[in-house]
Amino acid sequence: MLAELKWAWLVIGLTLAFMLQPLLAVASPVEAELGGYVAAGVDHYGSFYDEDGGHSTTRGVLRNAKLELELALGKRWEAELDGSYKIEGDKKELDLGDAYLLYDGESRFEARIGRFKEPFGLERLASYTSLNTSERSLVTSAFAPGRSIGVMAGQYRKRGTWSLGLFTDEPDGGSTHAITARLTRAPIRSESQTLHLGAAASYRDLGDSRFQIKDEGEVFSADNVIRSPRFEAGDAWLAGLEAAWLCHRLTLVAEAMAQSVRRTDGSRWQFGGAYLQAGVFLTDDRRYYSRGEFDRIEPRHRAGALELVARHSAVDLRDRNLGAEASVTLLGLAWYLGELFQLRLNYLMPDIRGNTLMAVPDGDAVTLRAVLRF
pTM (2 decimals)? Predict the structure, then answer.
């Protein structure tokens, strides 16, 4: 029933967005902008990513087809409504993205209510179109919370940001209540280089629900072959540290995350992970930074921008000799043609130890993504 209500809300909202856009565009002081993107491609992977031990799998994927409606309501108020559609193997998913109302106050103070990303993780908060890899890192996917319904306040200045929010996923059928906060600082910020530092924390009341971390290892259409133990959990603490250095064509990013989960019997289970990523432009381009996040690439030449990417991410989901320890090493190439089109090619080399699900824990993967904004 809850799922049906969510789909109905999404369909009605997007229908109204199309019908009312001409009126909103001319009704001063309301301004409306309709946009979005389509991300599609191919995943090819070996037996590591297949629970049944299939030797080789190739799948076409619709990573995301997203429609975004943004409204500016006078000088201080903004609203956004997003809807997305995904095809992952035989699974098709229609989802509500951001749906919130925002107040933009003095001194870059903001207050937001609705459905949006919790303030946790540099990579998690980045838009998919701002990434330079096919998927976010194994660490971010395993630990960083995504969109929830809640209320949040924060201040977003050029050299530093803070944000604090209260969240729940009950309307979507979950039982988690959370308090999440993030603090960032850019002690060095100039035309030639930027140093970003950040920290985030989240307390999560899990309501004695079933807990397990499951991840597909940076391949969108693969099985969730990397897993922690499964048990009923009362609450959890989640902490994250982040750092980034931008210097001309070079970008270095590192994040570490740790989670302490209290089982209903009172015992504490510890999990964690970290990744290090490097990107260097082969063309005369660079990545830009604004208010605690990366901006989308704006190539300087008609031929576009070309970026080499390397990343190593590792997670430890093993405690009391249960669960897995896994890592993924990625080599990639990203091509940005203008601000509207991207190609991302990634080669992934996974490794796993401990408890495994797959029959043969071996086999690399190749992913290709084409991203078109409109």
Answer: 0.89
Q: Residue 337 has which token pair?
A: 């043609």
- pLDDT computed for residue 1 by the predictor: 46
Nearest to 124 by CA among 153, 143, 144, 104: 144
Mean pLDDT of 121-134: 96
pLDDT over 80 at 8, yes or no: no
Percent of the chain with pLDDT over 90: 77
The DSSP line for 102-127 is EEE-GGGEEEEEEEEE-S--HHHHS-
Best CA proximity match to 54, nearest among 323, 353, 326, 362? 362
As to burial, measured by CB atoms within 10 angstroms (0-12 exposed, 13-18 middle, 19+ buried), residue 290 is exposed
Average pLDDT of span 109-117: 96
Residue corresponding to tokens 């090619």: 345
Average pLDDT, the chain: 90
The torsion angles phi and psi of 88, rounded to 5 degrees, stand at -120, 90
Kindly provide the b/e burial profile for residues 86-105, where b requires at least 16 CB atoms within 10 angstroms of the residue's own CB: bbbeeeeeebbbbbbebebe
pLDDT at 311: 98
Per DSSP bridges, beta strands 56-73 and 77-88 are: antiparallel
pLDDT at 18: 47
Between the alpha carbon of residue 241 and those of residues 137, 212, 341, the distances in Å are 15, 22, 31
Give ∠ CA 25-26-32 in degrees, rounded to 5: 15
